[in-house]
Amino acid sequence: MLRLAFLGSGSSGNAALIRWGQTRLLLDCGFSVAELSRRLAGLGERLEDVQAVFVTHEHSDHVAALRGLSRRGHLALGLTAGTARAVKLAKRAKAERLEVRPGVPLRVGEIEVLTFRTLHDACEPVGYRFGFPDGSALGIATDLGVAGDGAVEALRGCALLGLESNHDPDMLRAGPYPAFLKRRILSDRGHLSNAQAADLLGRLAHPGLRQVFLLHLSKVNNRPPLAAAVLGEKLRSLGLGAGLAVVGPDQPLEYPARNRADAPRPQLELFA
Ligand SMILES: [Zn+2]
Ligand SMILES: [Zn+2]
Predict the structure, then answer these.
(1) Ligand 2 centroid vs 57 CA: distance in angstroms?
(2) Which of 126, 196, 229, 258 has its CA 20 to 30 A from that of 216?
(3) Which residues are in the CB-under-5-Å shell of ion ligand 2?
(4) Model pTM greater than 0.85?
C-alpha cells in the first residue's frame, strides 16, 4: 500500500517520499542531505533505503542535496537532460542516472513514473505522475507558470493530487517583493496562484479523486487558510468529497495519516 510523506514544501525546500512496499522514491531533494535524513528519520525511514530520487527542475529549493546524493552508489537520479546540464553533477558521481523524458514512462520497483513538461523559468522542468500496482496514481504539479494541456492530460484520473498553490495575486502585488520578482512570479513561467490551482483542479476533477495537497505556498504572498478556502470552495462547487491538506515548509505531512498520538500533524487539514 502507498505511503506518501511530504517532508516539506515551499521556497525554503521541497521533498516528498513515495513508497509502495519496498520501493521508495524521493521527489525533489531541496534540503541538505543531513536535513533530508533527519526528516526521513522522523518518519521512521532512512535515506539508505531510497532507490531513486526524481527531480522536477534545477532550482535550489528542489535540488539542494543532489550533488551530495550523487556520490551515493545505492541511488539512481532521475533528471531530464536539461536539468542534468543545469545542475552540473560532480565528476565523482556514483549514482546511476535515469534519463527522464517527458511522456516516456519509467519503472522503479513497483512504481511507474511518468513525466510531463511544465512551463517554468528552468532548463527542462517537468511534473510527475506516479502509478501504483493497485491502479491508483499520484500526480504532482509544482513550479509552473500555467497549467498547459499536457499537464492536464498527464494528470487525468489521479486519485491523489499535489498542486502548487503559490500565491494570492493581490497579496503579491501589494507585498514587499521587488517589481521584477512580482512580474516573474505572475508570468507564464512563474508560479500558480490559488485561483489558477483551483482552475487546474476543476479540469482534473473526477469522482475517484480522494485527496488534494496544496504545495509551495509562499510565506509572504499567501496564507494557508486563504489557499485552503479557495481550493475547498472549488471542491464543494464540484460536489466532490475529496480531502484537502496544505503542506507547510517544515512539518512533514503523511498520507494516509498514521493513527498515532505522536504522528506528525499537518499544519491545516480540511475535509470537505
Ligand atoms: Zn520551487
Ligand atoms: Zn522553481
Answers:
(1) 7
(2) 258
(3) 59, 143
(4) yes
> Which residues, 6 or more positions from 153, have their beta carbon under 8 angstroms from its beta carbon?
116
How many CB atoms within 10 Å of residue 102? Answer: 16
* Mean pLDDT on 153-159: 98
Q: Domain coordinates of the chain in residue numbers?
A: 2-271
Residue 228, pLDDT score: 97
Q: Give me the CATH code for the 2-271 domain, please.
A: 3.60.15.10
CA of 63 to the centre of ligand 1 (A): 10
Q: Cα(155) to centroid of ligand 1, in Å?
A: 19
Which helix H or strand E contains 79, and what residues bound it? strand 76-79
| DSSP string of 157-223, one letter each residue | T-SEEEEE--B-HHHHHHSSS-HHHHHHHHSTTS--BHHHHHHHHHHH--TT--EEEEE---TTT--
Residues 72-113: tens digit of each pLDDT = 888 999 999 999 999 988 777 899 999 999 999 999 999 999
Angle 74-247-106 from CA coordinates, rounded to 5°: 40
Compute the distance from residue 122 Cα to the ligand 2 centre, in Å. 7
Instruction: Report percent pLDDT > 70 for the chain.
Output: 95
Residue 267 has pLDDT above 80, yes or no: no
